[in-house]
Design goal:
With 607 residues, this protein is of the alpha/beta class. It has helices at 16-29, 31-39, 52-56, 59-65, 70-78, 82-91, 95-100, 114-126, 159-183, 199-205, 220-232, 245-250, 310-315, 344-354, 390-395, 408-411, 425-430, 440-462, 503-515, 521-528, 533-543, 546-578; strands spanning 104-106, 109-110, 189-193, 212-217, 240-243, 266-270, 276-278, 296-301, 333-341, 358-366, 414-415, 418-419, 470-471, 483-484, 582-589, 600-606. The protein is built from 22 helices and 16 strands. The strands form 5 sheets. Strands 7-8-4-3-9-10-16-15 form an 8-stranded mixed β-sheet, sandwiched between helices. Strands 1-2 form a two-stranded antiparallel sheet. A two-stranded antiparallel sheet has the order 5-6. A hairpin with a 2-residue loop joins strand 11 and strand 12 (418-419). Helix 6 (82-91) packs antiparallel against helix 8, helix 8 packs parallel to helix 22 (546-578) and helix 9 crosses helix 10.
Length: 607
């Protein structure tokens, strides 16, 4: 199942090594990229001096952006053909003609500046290819002929989840089939890191896959919900309790002093054979289904803090004997995850190296903002959001060995700002955006929300509730740490939908929410009292022209962050590549980007 090229590259690169060299050079040398990916924050937009828009973007870009609306700008960034961008560059005759806007070569207006076109091409070139080709188009015979998920298995799933589960179970099934036939690794169990409500594991344990699944989940309520849905999926039967109604109504104790009768009137309790079993890292595991031809699920409640699966291996219940009486060997595990949050994917990849029983990993990540940092203290989009307590003050200067970057290649990379590649939380937060999927309605909605929040920050500054931001350098991280605020942290978060109907409604809703903070609520209300609707409206009128500028910067940030995601994924691939125990590793797409943007799986196979 390995692909020809271990990374889904653009056609500009002949091999993965050439791409990695170019990628690392770009992210550490492009000042514009570093500013857009971690160097600025939206709360600075109306409070920073000099003006953030004019500071970050070249003048020729700003002049050109004034001539086009946001949908057209988004089209240029993400939808115009690469060949057209190249022809636009060629059509610019002279630098003076470009600045004067005399070349009407794009949408009846001036041609975009050469530097903007070159930046767009650089981002596209260094972003991993996200095109998806369904497995059915080229799958092995063992993976074909499998239809969509039955309704009883897809219980609780929304269309996006159905798409993800359908595609990933086929991918896992094909990968295990290849392992069985070509590698000599007969995979006996599939371990799902962070199984949640176990949609993926339930599909794998159901026909026609019939896999033996170990579902690792840290939250007991998710496990309980998953077990309920297992009944609907026909993987286990609902527990039956037979009662003597007369005795139950009287509230008498069970006859014959039955020690097992914990409730009055219960005379018989019948539990299922439990194909999906119930287990617990610190408790008992359910009985395995004696029918080896059927899939089984064993739930283990565990908070995963590293890749050591020794306890999990101990808990696995294999059939005691093979048909010829021989004792079965140790389990052969495949570790998988569908959208592992933060460091969970790192733990999954490390499990391939730390555990002899783990033979293959296939992990799809998400929530890059939850990834910790290995090369220095945590970096924040708003450092002042850190709570003022001794424990956090102590840990804020520590490094997390489980964080980004995983690979030595990125950790030791030498560049003009020092050693190692770091990505702060602002950059990683933007990496979970999916700008290619934005609709016009969605754009208007969240651009308005961002503008309201930035404008509120200006109001808070003018009323002395927050202080002016200062720019803090990050001398050892390869990128600026972004906005640094003084004074108390004010987190508004999400408000009711009605609060976004106007800026006045937003301010009223935000002040009410901020006032709930007992420590600062009185001070906020005192300083904002007497603020009438006309005062709020004047703010919006004064800064309304800034909304488009904010929308342009946010669009550029989201577009550029595709390279941030690519850097994180490449780092994970490089980590596997560096391990002596790993024979093969690669990255490929497993979902349609339009339905599930976090669609890259990292695969590693042990020697």
């Amino acid at each position: 199942m390995p692909v020809k090229c271990p990374l889904p590259l653009s056609s500009d690169f002949d091999n993965a090594e050439a791409y990695v060299k170019s990628l690392l050079s770009f992210v550490t040398s492009s000042e514009l990229f570093q500013n857009l990916c971690g160097g600025v924050h939206i709360l600075d937009f109306l409070t920073k001096e000099p003006d953030l828009y004019s500071t970050v973007l070249p003048e020729e870009w700003r002049v050109w952006f004034q001539l086009h609306d946001i949908p057209a700008i988004l089209d240029l960034l993400m939808r115009e053909d690469d060949g057209l961008l190249e022809s636009l560059k060629s059509s610019i005759d002279t630098l003076s003609a470009e600045k004067q806007g005399t070349n009407s070569t794009w949408r009846n207006g001036p041609c975009p500046p050469t530097s903007l076109l070159e930046y767009i091409q650089a981002i596209r070139r260094h972003a991993l290819n996200r095109d998806f080709r369904p497995l059915d188009a080229s799958a092995a015979p063992s993976s074909t002929g499998i239809g969509p998920l039955p309704r009883h298995v897809a219980v609780g799933m929304k269309p996006k989840k159905i798409h993800e589960v359908e595609k990933f179970v086929k991918y896992i099934n094909g990968l295990t089939a290849d392992m069985d036939t070509t590698d000599g690794h007969k995979i006996t169990h599939i371990v799902d890191f962070g199984s949640g409500q176990n949609y993926l594991g339930r599909a794998l344990a159901s026909p026609p896959y019939n896999k033996q699944v170990i579902a690792l989940e840290s939250k007991q309520h998710n496990i309980n919900e998953a077990k309920t849905m297992d009944i609907t999926a026909r993987l286990t039967e609902k527990e039956k309790i037979m009662c003597n109604k007369k005795r139950y109504r009287k509230g008498s104790q069970s006859t014959n002093h039955d020690p097992d009768a914990s409730q009055p009137g219960i005379v018989q309790s019948s539990s299922s054979s439990q194909a999906p079993v119930n287990g617990n890292i610190h408790g008992s595991a359910s009985q395995a289904n004696p029918d080896e031809s059927k899939g089984k699920i064993q739930y283990l409640e565990s908070f995963i803090q590293n890749g050591d699966l020794a306890t999990v291996v101990h808990e696995i219940k294999c059939a005691p004997n093979t048909p010829d009486g021989m004792i079965k060997p140790d389990p052969q595990l495949m570790v998988i995850s569908l959208h592992s949050c933060g460091n969970l994917l790192h733990h999954g990849l490390r499990s391939l190296v730390l555990n002899p029983s783990v033979k293959v990993v296939a992990m799809v990540g998400c929530c890059y903002n939850l990834v910790t940092e290995r090369l220095g203290p945590p970096t924040y989009k708003l450092p002042s959001l850190r709570s003022s307590n001794m424990r956090l003050d102590a840990t804020s200067s520590t490094c997390d060995p489980h964080g980004f970057p995983m690979s030595e290649r990125l950790a030791m990379y030498q560049h003009q700002l020092g050693q190692g590649i770091r990505l702060n939380i602002t950059a990683r937060m933007m990496a979970v955006q999916a700008p290619e999927n934005w609709t016009a309605t969605e754009c208007e909605s969240f651009f308005t929300r961002h503008f309201y929040r930035a404008l509120l920050q200006r109001m808070l500054l003018d009323h002395g509730i927050v202080e002016k931001p200062t720019q803090e350098g990050d001398g050892d991280g390869g990128g600026p740490r972004g906005w640094t605020g003084a004074g108390p942290a004010l987190t508004v978060g999400s408000l009711r939908k009605v609060c976004y109907s106007s800026f006045t409604a937003y301010v009223r809703g935000a002040i009410t929410k901020l006032a709930d903070d007992q420590e600062r609520g009185i001070a906020i209300q005192r300083r904002m009292e007497g603020l009438i609707d006309e005062d709020i409206s004047r703010y919006e009128d004064k800064f309304k022209e800034k909304k488009k500028e904010l929308s342009v910067v946010w669009s550029l940030m989201a577009f550029s962050a595709s390279v941030v995601e690519s850097s994180i994924v490449v780092d994970r691939w490089l980590y596997l590549k560096e391990q002596a125990e790993v024979r093969e590793c690669w990255v490929e797409t497993v979902f349609d980007y339009k339905q599930s943007p976090r669609n890259l799986v990292v695969v590693g196979i042990k020697k």
